[in-house]
Amino acid sequence: MRSLNRVGVAQALFLAAMLATVSRAHAQFPSDQPTRLPALGRSAVSDDDSTALVVNPANLAFLPREELRWTGMFLNENATASYQGHAFAFAFPISFLSISTGLRLDVVSPPRAFSKLAFGNENARYEWLTWGLAFRPSPAFGVGFSLQRSYSNQAAAHDLASWSLGLSSRPSDYFGFAVVGQNLNGPTTNQGGFVDRSYNFAVAIRPARSRVVEYVTGPGREHDRVLHFHHAHGATIASILPGYRPRCSLAWPENY
What we know:
The protein is of the alpha+beta class. Helix content is 17%, strand content 32%.
């Protein structure tokens, strides 16, 4: 009962904060603004690693253990999108407090075409520093927020400070949903720079109940070759251990 009460209070506070900031909405990562690097392929509902810092800070609450991650994105210099650069993130849970936190640095060097279009020169750079904190009042529910601030050699992209808020609920192995508000204060600078606020509602439906099918049979990012080998040679994969992830050379721990 105490857990349900905490969930109810968290949901009420989240909805009140979202309603207080309702305005025109845009894509979560608009390509014509100096935003952080997007976490392509990640879900606002089921993401549970350090990329939650830019997708849905509430999902930090489901982080199974500490993680150190590097992400690199590279575009043609004639591209008019800003998504080029590197992101470094570290996140970890504090289990006895039912909270998780993380820090991420985005070092963005947009293509020359975007830089010239947005800033009038070809040498623009900017960085975003993001801190996130999430609370998990029950095993199926998380709420979190993040604070982010930009630093740049371009006045229009410097000193953009904003905050984001997210809620994520996984009431069943078959179903989950999330609500996220990004840059809710709509940050601007005196030199005309801005990042629009955005809102995202997501639903996940998993007919197979768990990630076992994804991990074992593939195809795609979730495919795990070790489990596939054992399954192909007659083994029955009953379930995935908590915290298990396919191997990824760009993240630590190694089995993440």
